[in-house]
Amino acid sequence: MQTATPLGRVTRPRADALRNRERIVTAAREMFVEHGPDVPLDEIARRAGVGNATVYRNFPDRDALVREVVCSVMDRTAAAAEQALAETGDAFAALERFVHTAADERISALCPMVSSTFDQNHPDLVAARERIEQLVEEVMGRAKAAGQLRADVGVGDLLIVVAQLSRPPAGTDCLISDRFVHRHLQLFLDGLRAPARSALPGTAISIKELRQS
């Protein structure tokens, strides 16, 4: 005899199902970075240590899996900055945590997949993108108000440079370039500190301008 689920009670996924989903997302992130968005889902299942049916049960198509990977990366990057801000109250330290975490998460390799191939206006992607943009705007605003961050840079400036410095130069091995990413990002961050040593050409780039470019 079956027992009916009481009305109003939400059935929660089992712990092992949640672990499998996380393993799939982690494996997909690694393989998308290594091979691009067209990597076979069977290979992702093999790296995750699950069956093909488990992948399709969690993600009905490739778009859904790519979207989940990109959203999870953006969410973890934003959470790192939020945690740094809560722990220290130091806006520039939160900015540094955001930049270095974005590099570790390979956000520069994953986000172009969405902009070039998949639906940019999916509600999940929009929410994750807006969260990260609002957080960076808030952190940069607080750092400027505290006299830590030069006044002539915008959120768009930061996101462009992080993407450029986190991406390996053409013809180089990703693992080799990883040795230098955080070194070069820290050089960039030191250049953001106030007082500025030189005047920047042009004007600060906003999020709106970045989206239009």
How would you explain this protein's 3D organization?
One of its GO terms (molecular function) is DNA-binding transcription factor activity. With 213 residues, this protein is mainly alpha-helical. Helix 1 crosses helix 2, helix 4 (62-88) runs antiparallel to helix 5 and helix 8 (155-166) packs antiparallel against helix 9. It is 69% helix and 0% strand. The longest helix has 27 residues, at 62-88. The protein starts with 14 loop residues before the first helix and ends with a helix. It has two domains: 14-60, Homeodomain-like (Arc Repressor Mutant, subunit A, Orthogonal Bundle), CATH 1.10.10.60; 70-212, Tetracycline Repressor, domain 2.
Our Rg estimate from Cα atoms comes to: 20 Å
Please count the beta strands (DSSP E, at least 2 residues each): 0
How would you describe the shape? Answer: elongated
Helix content: 55-70%
The CATH first-level class of the largest domain comes to Mainly Alpha
Low-confidence stretches: none
The CATH homologous superfamily name of the largest domain equals Tetracycline Repressor, domain 2
Strand content: under 5%
Discrete helix count: 10
Question: Total domains, how many?
Answer: 2
Spell out the helices and strands N to C: HHHHHHHHHH
Major sheet description? none
Sheet/helix structural class: mainly alpha
Mean pLDDT: 83
GO molecular function, one term: transcription cis-regulatory region binding
Organism: Streptomyces cellostaticus
Protein name: TetR family transcriptional regulator
Pfam families: TetR_C_43, TetR_N
